[in-house]
């Protein structure tokens, strides 16, 4: 029997006199498991993980067969993933800690042992989401922003200090040391992990999940990892495998090499468009072909980072000599690098030019030489625009109707100007398309030395020619790690960036997640007065409506080089081929081509100044790098001491009504529609992360707690309290509820009163009448961040189901994890069914034999008494999804497991 052959796959690797035990996937082929050698490399990692954790309980023989036969429809079913570690950032990490602390409190309340609630795999939390670009364009910007960060977030940071001292396997990286994905890539990733178990030295592939959707960046170094919601991460921490459907693996063949004027950012934007057109949601993408030899790990990481934007679960680059070179370049231990190479060779997982080509479900081809300088926007990352077409596309979109994803400006509005009178006596004019924010920011680009050195070289040439940016452009530089500042300083390029206003303003996600801070005062007033449609250009990965800044409607993604270029131009309404970017001291036109950096110059500076010693030095001192963090004190205790007056940290309500045994599941009767939403509704729309408006349910709540608006902080920073986050759900200022045409923002039509009111207020009225709620949506519902509060808030508002045309992977999983039923239209949608929001819906088929992907019936009752039915697909995609749903979500199920009661 195959079961008896599992032990035969345990092998020994002897390296420098030391024996390491590993589970050999190559020998599975000899034992009748199929052609393992031609499995995609990403599936080989999953296979090794299943083989190593095989126990015929959590991981069974069927699971292993499903992986080895992943391309056979007969084997499509759930498979387990047990990552070797978990990474968190603070916006998603704080609610994870709050949930774990809440579970401990509940465990103590019912007489159990709270210390059962402990991570059993290593967890690293990197604080990177809280810094806001309040100060900019000056030498003291960084100090000012860090000081404000601690003023706003001391209570949250004390919670994280408590977690580090009170939980096992839990480590916190202080603020201002870098972005989670840069720290992961440059420091945490081992590629091959060693662990001693019962005096046996084990070696296996490094793997992880993270509570940030851009965790996928780590696939650029050949480490399998992806983003999950916080509640799913909590299950993983506490020993629950992460189950998901056997993925299709799409092979993206790369050939040729990038032109000298194209960057990794341009490649990432090209692939994002290409794969969105192809449709890869829920699939693995794996890169192969001779073109891999021409892409550095830094460039691969940029492409892998934007995986959520192209919709795949991972965008995987196999381990090869480029990977080993990167480990060496970032100061990793030479002995460990040699061990990585030996192990991956032994496993048949080290890609070479002679390796057999993997078998994929389907393949796509991209010739790297066809990649052109690009931007994406102004509303979605997949909407790529070639630089040469930017002016034409800008004019098209700004005048296009709102229902065509445009801005509906007339010619007179387009040409209208607003006078800016600065306090120093200078004057400028603001016009539609003006660049109000130019930010070198985000995990996508800010640890890629090639694009950052390129930005520095462009700045140098611009300054030498006497160019300057307009005063209305807010500029900021938020490096991905401390290493970046070091090599920019040593190469002499940082002063040129500073000359153009790009001072280091913080080490964190900053502008990319909406922590852009206030605009230039005069610009903000002009927008309020004259409704000028301004733009942001950022080196980020997302540009959804309302995300970057509430007053900035147009948002374009671009390389750091182009960020500096557009800052100089001061407008996106420019054709760089035909119009000068500025004028020199002699009033002669200077064109972009005159200051564009030379590729060979970039390479020369990278080789000279980006040294392994910088990485070693900066990461050796990383835990001591922030004095204010080190001075924070928090006593160790098993139970967190909740402060009922806190507006940041509250005991979560998810266990308040939890019973030891799950309640009997019922059909959903007589529900009202809360909102009818369109396509590509993001988790930013559902649960914004940025600033909290004063005139909003969340703002009103904070004001009632005697908190002034300057101390509101952001939604993201307040994810430790449900009282703010419930009120912020569906509160994005750019969300559009089709139940109330022409109204923008988080409002709905309350039925039966017909009153237009904030969604939160309506939900409280529905709660009083015990009315269940349904949300209706279009395609790609829940795209974007891994934001579990988008599901938590939905659940707490009383929403029982979301009916959409399609779901993004992480949000669908989060809804299930919170006990909200994701349902998918079958051959229909809200428009074809004529739904307008005043109907009463009843969903049947839930209570009787619920199983994965069961078809349910929705009965629609209109106010005129007419009725009709339509079918939906229950997007409970696996048996574990059904189990979570029957238990009311992951958290109640996990707590019941710890209590020791059987799960029904």
TrEMBL record:
<dbReference type="InterPro" id="IPR018136">
    <property type="entry name" value="Aconitase_4Fe-4S_BS"/>
</dbReference>
<keyword id="KW-0456">Lyase</keyword>
<dbReference type="InterPro" id="IPR006249">
    <property type="entry name" value="Aconitase/IRP2"/>
</dbReference>
<comment type="function">
    <text>Catalyzes the isomerization of citrate to isocitrate via cis-aconitate.</text>
</comment>
<comment type="subunit">
    <text>Monomer.</text>
</comment>
<keyword id="KW-0408">Iron</keyword>
<dbReference type="GO" id="GO:0006099">
    <property type="term" value="P:tricarboxylic acid cycle"/>
</dbReference>
<feature type="domain" description="Aconitase/3-isopropylmalate dehydratase large subunit alpha/beta/alpha">
    <location>
        <begin position="76"/>
        <end position="570"/>
    </location>
</feature>
<keyword id="KW-0479">Metal-binding</keyword>
<keyword id="KW-0004">4Fe-4S</keyword>
<dbReference type="InterPro" id="IPR001030">
    <property type="entry name" value="Acoase/IPM_deHydtase_lsu_aba"/>
</dbReference>
<dbReference type="GO" id="GO:0019679">
    <property type="term" value="P:propionate metabolic process, methylcitrate cycle"/>
</dbReference>
<dbReference type="GO" id="GO:0003994">
    <property type="term" value="F:aconitate hydratase activity"/>
</dbReference>
<dbReference type="InterPro" id="IPR044137">
    <property type="entry name" value="AcnA_IRP_Swivel"/>
</dbReference>
<comment type="similarity">
    <text>Belongs to the aconitase/IPM isomerase family.</text>
</comment>
<dbReference type="Pfam" id="PF00330">
    <property type="entry name" value="Aconitase"/>
</dbReference>
<dbReference type="InterPro" id="IPR015931">
    <property type="entry name" value="Acnase/IPM_dHydase_lsu_aba_1/3"/>
</dbReference>
<keyword id="KW-0411">Iron-sulfur</keyword>
<protein>
    <recommendedName>
        <fullName>Aconitate hydratase</fullName>
        <ecNumber>4.2.1.3</ecNumber>
    </recommendedName>
</protein>
<keyword id="KW-0816">Tricarboxylic acid cycle</keyword>
<dbReference type="InterPro" id="IPR036008">
    <property type="entry name" value="Aconitase_4Fe-4S_dom"/>
</dbReference>
<dbReference type="GO" id="GO:0051539">
    <property type="term" value="F:4 iron, 4 sulfur cluster binding"/>
</dbReference>
<feature type="domain" description="Aconitase A/isopropylmalate dehydratase small subunit swivel">
    <location>
        <begin position="702"/>
        <end position="825"/>
    </location>
</feature>
<dbReference type="InterPro" id="IPR000573">
    <property type="entry name" value="AconitaseA/IPMdHydase_ssu_swvl"/>
</dbReference>
<dbReference type="InterPro" id="IPR015928">
    <property type="entry name" value="Aconitase/3IPM_dehydase_swvl"/>
</dbReference>
<dbReference type="Pfam" id="PF00694">
    <property type="entry name" value="Aconitase_C"/>
</dbReference>
<dbReference type="GO" id="GO:0046872">
    <property type="term" value="F:metal ion binding"/>
</dbReference>
<comment type="pathway">
    <text>Carbohydrate metabolism; tricarboxylic acid cycle; isocitrate from oxaloacetate: step 2/2.</text>
</comment>
